[in-house]
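note to self: dont lose this again. the chain is below, predicted strucutre after it. 470 aa total, dont forget to put it in the shared folder this time
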Amino acid sequence: MQMPLLLTYSTCYCPQTKAIAYLFKKAWIGFLLLCLTGFASTSHADDLLSIYHQALQADPTTQSAHVKVKIGEAQKEQAKGQMLPQVTGSANWSTNYQTFGNNPTNNYGGTRYYISLNQTLIDFAKFWNWRKAKATESQYEREAAQAEQNLLFEVTDKYFSVLEAEDELSLYQSEAEITGKEARQIQQQYDKQMVKVTDLYAIQAKLDQINAAAVEAEAKAQAAKQALQQLTNASPVNLAKLKDHIDYKPLEGKLEDWLAVARSENPAIAAQGYAIAAAEHDVDQQQAGHYPVVEAQLNYYNTDIGYQNQRTGQLDNQVAAINVNVPIFSGGATHQRVQEAKHRLTLNQYGKETKLRELNKITSEAYLNANASVKRIKANQKALSSASKSSDAMATGFNYGVQTLNDVLKAQDEEFQALQDLSKAKYGYVKNRMKFLQAIGSISEDNLKEVNSWLEFPSQAKTRPTAQAK
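---
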């Protein structure tokens, strides 16, 4: 943080100057914290839960996942329908004109009626196709659940990324404004030959650095908002901020136990398991191409038209039959289809192993980082308090002429960095906690409501105890 330097470079004790500098610093701290809480009106504002509901309606990935479930259900019913009775019928009415040489034309009408019922008795390929379709439907259902859980995390991650970027931008903007005032004061003191030219150059260089960082932070904030808007298809407005006082609790339990939960409950792993089952059934289906197919058939045929539409007497034909089709040789195509199915099964098995390893990594990192964030928050709070005291001491030392301006600026930078680190640690805790819940397959809207209770709109923010403690 940058402290206003309403100070003279003198070795004499000046209580009035010191008091003014102290009060100016208190006012600046309050201003900085006010910037962090935001100045926006809450006439229209969004919190985490409202953003999630917007995303739930607008996110195409989640909606596509649910459409795939319907596709899987339709495919299953199609496969089931192939094993049920197949009934076909046809009817034909015709007018026929017949001429034999020079004989008069013979005109007559004709009719044909045909109905057939076929029922599969033994067809292993159809049976395994139905089993494969059932497994595929279950796979799509788990993928839809995964998409919903991914959306819960993505909303949280992108929401707090916006808050983090906005806080960083506010810090730089506030620091730039205060440092600008300091630079003008140093210029005035330099004009009166009260400070060295190196002090003037130092403060101007520092202001240029802050302005450059603010430009980068602004671009980062805009990019974060665009990422959130991609989920909701609407611009976020006056997002609720994270409260000052939250009980950041570490995650309980052993990591090894949580890894076992993740492997059994994560919907992505379950979906991959069903994909393997579908691939296994596909192997069985292709192997069934070598087996006989047995089918029962009932036909009814009625016509008064014979070969080449010759007029005949009324013919009524009823047939009951058992058809047996035995595949003998298909040029090796059936064998190669079996080999292809086996290779696809192997690919799915490798895919599951890849996802399991990735899940172990994600779960471990999220668990460890969430618990580490709790310690970081406490450490950064102490670091901020120490850096603030150091900054006070350097400002006082500059009053008495025993510290240089560079010493003061360095102390202010350390205080600013401590505040920024504390902010990142808080947001990191929330993100890693939700990432952990997603990894173990337990993330839900209730978790989102809990995190949402940690937020407050700018108008709800009270005077910060941190500012009072200064």
